[in-house]
Specification:
single chain, alpha/beta, Aspartate Aminotransferase, domain 1, Aspartate Aminotransferase, domain 2, 4-stranded mixed β-sheet, 17 strands, globular, disordered C terminus, binds pyridoxal-5'-phosphate
């Protein structure tokens, strides 16, 4: 356990020096390796959050470390006036794994929100192109409860009114729909520039779209000349068992956005466009100083090639099934269901106690997070094997028991303790 004086000190520093945009930090981590992290007292934890679906190769993976060291010692940054070999290699690799074909193009940013900002501008450019042809497309559709980021543009796309409220007015033009094909059919017309979709709503509690939704969305958007833009920021980089979640559905979108696991811990994001959508940006319409620099792109190339080399797509799919089966076999009265795909898993609880489960897990030496009040989210490294799965089940089972016991203690109608 962390020494309480040390803990008090860093918590004091954090609460004095960091902007209060987030709650209190839950621990001070100083080191990581594979699926393990260590706090400042030297205590080890099993990390099943992976920095929220980011550390796809785990912590301090030699491939990641080596790529950073080599590229930093070679050339880190030259600005987008110039090309670098890793930037072009990553663009070609992303096009390949995303199935974007010859016509595809890639824009680089530094985060998920920046990738989605670029996608928002892509949608506006599409609307403007058709406006010039006399058929404006001022409308953008997005899904209720989906999350696309926290910048002003991406917040406008994020279907969570409580997040938007302090920052009103929003960037105009975005309308929210429930995730049914019927709602999409009803809302769609030839004035829609784009539909934004999060294929599994991670921040909403790892909620999948209804079966067939993406295929129907592809057909409906195409019929009306609107772009289908899929946010693969949490689901991409192999997490669901395919490179990108849309690939389970056999569709071709007009654009996807990626970030998080692509860089394995190095901040990088990208917009990948398909077909005619690749012709919408023109010089001067967008840019970022750091986006696509040699250092970030070299790391992402190394991470993606290692995911491929080590067969981590298949591992994500198999470990996902293994984990969900084992969680369900715990037979906890707290667990209602497991959701998700591959190694993006939501454990749905019967009570709004996800925060308590996460806190108990941390006490037992396990890092997970509460996607909402009744969902615990798991997004571990894609490299996990039997050892990590077994340890997770042991620790998670104990965390669930801790919370089950406390619920029993708190339940005034429960008399089981009296006879015990
Ligand atoms: N889109 C999705 C689906 C996400 O899960 C996230 C982050 O959680 C974002 C966008 C925003 O990414 P970032 O936090 O890197 O800006």
């Amino acid at each position: 356990m962390t020494d309480t004086t040390t803990q008090a000190r860093w918590q004091e520093d954090a609460s004095r020096d960091l902007v209060r945009n987030a709650g209190a930090r839950l621990a001070m981590f100083t080191r990581g390796e594979g699926a393990s992290v260590w706090d400042d007292s030297g205590r080890r934890y099993l990390d099943f959050l992976g920095g929220i679906a980011v550390t796809s190769l785990g912590h301090a993976h030699p491939v990641f470390v080596d790529a950073i060291a080599r590229q930093a010692a070679t050339l880190a940054h030259v600005s987008n006036y110039f090309a670098t070999p890793p930037q072009l290699e990553l663009a070609a690799l992303l096009k390949e794994i995303a199935g974007a074909g010859e016509a595809g193009r890639v824009y680089f940013g530094n985060s998920g929100a920046e990738a989605n900002e670029a996608a928002f501008k892509l949608a506006r450019l599409h609307g403007a192109a058709d406006r010039n042809a006399g058929t404006p497309r001022p409308r953008i559709l997005a899904l209720e409860n989906a999350f696309h980021g926290r910048t002003m543009g991406t917040l406008a796309l994020t279907g969570k009114p409580y997040m938007q409220e302090p920052f009103l007015p929003m960037v105009p033009g975005v309308e929210f729909l429930d995730s049914t094909v019927a709602a999409l059919e009803a809302a769609m017309d030839d004035r829609v520039a784009a539909l934004f979709v999060e294929p599994i709503k991670g921040e909403a509690g790892v909620v999948e779209l209804p079966e067939g939704y993406l295929r129907a969305a592809r057909e409906i958007t195409r019929r009306h000349g609107a772009l289908l833009i899929v946010d693969e920021i949490q689901t991409g980089a192999g997490r669901t068992g395919e490179w990108f979640a849309f690939q389970h559905e056999g569709i071709t979108p007009d654009a996807i956005t990626v970030a998080k696991g692509i860089g394995g811990g190095f901040p990088i994001g990208a917009l990948i466009t398909y077909g005619e959508a690749s012709d919408l940006f023109y010089p001067g319409t967008h840019g970022s100083t750091f986006g696509g620099n040699a250092l970030g792109t070299a790391v992402a190339v190394a991470v993606l090639r290692e995911i491929e080399r080590a067969g981590l797509l298949a591992n994500a799919a198999e470990r996902g099934v293994q984990l969900r089966t084992a969680i369900e076999a715990l037979d906890s009265p707290l667990v209602r269901e497991t959701r998700g795909r591959g190694l993006l898993i939501g454990v749905g609880l019967r009570h709004p106690v996800a925060g308590a489960v996460v806190a108990a897990a941390q006490q037992h030496g396990l890092i997970v997070n509460a996607a909402n009040e009744d969902t615990v989210r798991l997004a571990p490294a894609l490299t996990i094997g039997d050892v990590e799965v077994d340890e997770f089940i042991d620790l998670f089972g104990r965390a669930l028991h801790t919370v089950e016991d406390s619920l029993l203690l708190e339940d005034p109608t429960d008399h089981s303790k009296e006879s015990a």
